[in-house]
Automatic annotation (TrEMBL):
It comes from the Archaea. It comes from Natronorubrum halalkaliphilum. Belongs to the phosphoglycerate kinase family. ATP binds at residues 331, 357-360. SUPFAM superfamilies: Phosphoglycerate kinase (SSF53748). Monomer. This is Phosphoglycerate kinase. Substrate binds at residues 21-23, 36, 59-62, 116, 156. GO terms for molecular function: ADP binding; ATP binding; phosphoglycerate kinase activity. It is found in: Cytoplasm.
Amino acid sequence: MTTFQTIDDLESGRRLLVRIDVNAAVEDGTVQDDRRFARHAETIRELLADDHAVALLAHQGRPGRETFVSLEGHADILADHLDHPVAFVADTCGDEALAAIDDLELGDVILLENVRMCDGELPEEEPDVKAETDLVRTLAREFDAYIGDAYPAAHRSHASIVGFPQVMDAYAGRVMEQEYTAIRAVRERTFDGPVTMVLGGTKAEDTIPILERLDDTVDRFCLGGVVGELFLRAGGHDVGYDVAGTALFDHQWEDHRTDLERILETSRDRLFLPTDLAYEDDAGKRTEVSLEGTSKERPFLDVGSETADRYADLAADSAAVFVKGALGVFEDDRFADGTVTVLSAIADTDCFSVIGGGDTARVIELYEFDEDDFSQVSIAGGAYVRALAGESLVGIGALADNP
Ligand SMILES: Nc1ncnc2c1ncn2[C@@H]1O[C@H](COP(=O)(O)OP(=O)(O)O)[C@@H](O)[C@H]1O
Ligand SMILES: O=C(OP(=O)(O)O)[C@H](O)COP(=O)(O)O
């Protein structure tokens, strides 16, 4: 078992650099979901109770995406959850940040600007390379210790995740510790009956390795969302094209076409693909079409009801169901049916279930599911499924390697 120091091992009254993950859905510049804030507030509250000074480091979105915004609004949401001021600093590791860190006193909390705006945070590189970035070299000397709490980003070999533990005393925060322990316990379970995985969402890069690595554990994969459409395209159907300027489909197709075609060929008996899809018609209404009637000129925003019912039946007949990624654009209630139908089937049966994905977990709140109807709800997406597949997460490894 991987072991790391936790915040229980910290002496009180330290100056701490705390990496959290409050990456959230953002619309028109405004954060739409506070699940991750609520969880990290628990770690921060404990740190404040132990009289530490806390500087928070976090990211939001990816450069080039609409969700790549400043963390100013995030500081207010966090302050509400903590019921304690969180001062936003519009800089990550320059003079303004260093001045704010200099002023930091025990009991204070500051949030530094989006770390992905800083040179050196991206791209993914080896931890020793990341340890040499200006970001790590500059901030590391300002603090007594680093707290890694960003479990949802623990699969990314970015400077703020793997670089600091190379050069600083490092500890796992509560989110990191709890999510790691929970997924580890799931991996050790065996199930008396079929195991189903519902895979949707937008990130083919996170889904493809799962399909290959969970081959022994999962009996059937029900695919939807952008990922499902990419598989349909690999099977020769007229879907999965960028028609609304989102660059979600065509770029991923170029990057992953060979893998998609290979997996479709080798795992055909385990893969369940949509047989119908839903789109917005000219009158603005949800309309469904079978695969024979699809066209590459139209964006599809959900799986159709025949597909949703088939996936719901498979889930209801399972001993365990793992969900990662939504089957449609659930933020628009016209296109939430696929995801909601399948989650309802899972909630109504007593199978073991894990629901993951930063966005997917939001469906539970938006559509008023009772969280207790699921065995486990993870605030992570890509990190949770990789851990489920037995992959070591670099962010956990970095904390474990810390002397
Ligand atoms: N057909 C689709 N077209 C565009 N976006 C989609 C589609 N299906 C699902 N999505 C989007 O996928 C998002 C969830 O994606 P992702 O980030 O991969 O999952 P998670 O955050 O749950 O890990 C949702 O916000 C949803 O709107
Ligand atoms: O939200 C996240 O991942 P998730 O969508 O898989 O839950 C993490 O913050 C990682 O973000 P990234 O996938 O832009 O590296």
